[in-house]
Automatic annotation (TrEMBL):
SUPFAM superfamilies: Bet v1-like, Homeodomain-like. Keywords: Coiled coil, DNA-binding, Homeobox, Nucleus, Transcription, Transcription regulation. Residues 47-59 have a biased composition (Acidic residues). Belongs to the HD-ZIP homeobox family. Class IV subfamily. InterPro entries: HD, HD-Zip_IV, HD-Zip_IV_C, Homeodomain-like_sf, START_lipid-bd_dom. Residues 80-139 bind DNA. CDD domains: homeodomain (cd00086), START_ArGLABRA2_like (cd08875). This is Homeobox domain-containing protein. The lineage of its organism: Eukaryota, Viridiplantae, Streptophyta, Embryophyta, Tracheophyta. Pfam families: Homeodomain, PDF2_C, START. GO terms for molecular function: DNA binding; lipid binding.
Amino acid sequence: MPVVGDRVFFVSSESHQRKVTMGKGGQQANKNGHLDLNEPIPQLWNNDEDAIDDFLGDEDPAHTDPEDEDYVPNRRSKPSKKRVRRHTPQQIQELMAAYEQCTHPDPEAMQALGTMIGLAPKLVKFWFQNRRSQVKKKDQQEQNQQFQQANASLKAENRSLRKAILTQTCVTCCGKTLPFNPLLEKQQLLTKNARLKDEFLRAFAIHSKIIRDSAFTQPAPWISSSSSSEADREALLRHAETSMEQFLVLATKGEPMWLPAADGGEMLNHVEYRAKFSPALFRLRPEGFAVEATRDTAMVWGSAAELVVIFMDMARWSETFPGVVASVVAGDVVSTGSFADGQIQLMNAEMWVQSPRVPNRTVNILRYSKLVAERQWAVMDVSVDGIFGQEVLPAYLPARYMGCRLLPSGCLLEDMSNGYCKVTWIVHAEYDETTMPTVFKPLFLNGKALGACRWLTSLQRQREYATALHSSLYPGNNTAAEAAGMLKLAQQMMASFYATVSGPIAQSQATSSINDWFGSIGTGVERFDVAVRMVTWEKAGSSVAGEPASWFLSATTTLWLPGTPPERVFDYLRNEQRRGEWDFVHTDGAVVEEMSSVSMGYLAGNVTSILSSNKTDGTNDRTLILQEARTDASGSLVVYTPIGEEAMDAAMGGGDGASDFPTPSGFAILPDGRRKACHAPSPAPSTSSSAPVLRNDTAGSLVTMAYQVLLPGPLPDTAAGAFDDVGKLMCHVMEKIKNAVEAEIVLPA
């Protein structure tokens, strides 16, 4: 029976009559149900459910949401009547005191509290629910009020700033300001940025040159008889052996260690790798570094032992990978064992990608070659930064920030019976992704920039070049000497093009300068700004007494063509019938005819050729075009240079045509890496690896154009005009390419 204060209520469900027994001093109802008007009239109920509802009073609106933890369903469909207070002040006081101690009491506590104050546990529970809802509602109201005040303050500040912009007044002192010219301000900032960039590149080049010049003037630490040098040597030997063991596991294991990639090759399963190898073996990955781990296999002409000899000779190794290796400095030989037992050597290598937007990658590595089985060799590279317990390096290695480190990488060579060897190449690198332009991040993550595919295709091409150089079978009327002369001249042209695109030309010379020129491509809503890097430099040895110096201008820029496959761009650029659409400088819109060519490789389009147009200049010496076109899974190149017919004849006749060899121009076409692929489970994701996402899964292109020209006069008289002429020419050429390949979108990279 419910109890409230000193009143007791009896409920009879059989007779449906209500009998109320009042407390001390009260009266009893008569037979007609009338009560004494001098006493307060209590509410009567027909059943227990109504009694509970009357004790609760009006339902709190906050309890209408079923998701609320304090929600109490309304079991009455009819509108509730106005209720009077059902709790005494003493009960409310006790309930408030209990709420301050605990807002969510357990059933036992509510049972004890109800017994103490004369309320049922269910009513105590409902009171706590209502109380929590009231407190929550009050907090929300206060928070909303604070938000409204902050919003009003921001609106007032916004109005003040907009008024200041319109009236050109200072917000602080309310005084008038000078008129703002955004174009002039932008131009000043760009000029200052170009000057600072030029100063940085000069300082960096001088610093690198000093370190490289002193590489072999300091005593080698391993020759010293001190105990510390011997300890360092032992540390390097242990590091080499441990790395070789891991490399052989990675080179010989299949799935699930390696998973197939959709566009060829394999990608490392990082989950399986972490389960197999301890992450502390080569130190934890630095913060902000991304991981690229790829493997690829191909057949390469030559024996395994021959390739090992090339890889252990730093000069020949650099010549074998001209599009990948920018420079190399050989260090000490750590181990001088026999050729079969293995050799270990330290080196510093710098690698590049054909775009002026991508920074070069520098690594200090330990190279270990070893005969691991009959007719099977391994050449392994691994970084040595920090293996001595401190972040120090030997004196002959550049002591500068390294944005990349190699985990066990390299190649496994196996001799075959047909004069070829099977090469399995692995690249497992960690690099600072924060230094990478956003548009190039997918290209590096999938290994197309400096992964296994890039190294392996470069090796295949160089071996095919060596085969063609000594071959006696050539198409057309070319003799072996003529073909060899053409290939050697093309090799010089490609080396010059790599230096032009992948780094500032002659940046160590005091006479060189680097500037940025800004133009635009397209019209209307499709118009966008293009930044062209302008490098002016004086040709080495061109200053002769009484003669003006020869100054050259190299201009480079990179554009992104989303959804346009690289093959489409490559096919258009090497189309002889359509060359006049974009190369009107050398062809004047005329048709180009192939006079001679040497094909290399099994892929269509890998050819070195001599082109001639119908353009005439009124002289007997025609201007020919030497061109090399290359394409593979990692990218494509179309590089060309004008050369006089007499100089070409001299080069093909076995002479040296390099004295008349001008600087080359051309295009480097890289995939953007955004085609959908079956990527392996990734390690910890990097927040900076995100890039613009396209709706389709078609591969796009990153097209870099380089154009070089001899300036007509000395600097700085001709620089400004030449910048404008060359910049507009490049914008016009890129717009022609955009329209020809039907690229829907073109963006600056």
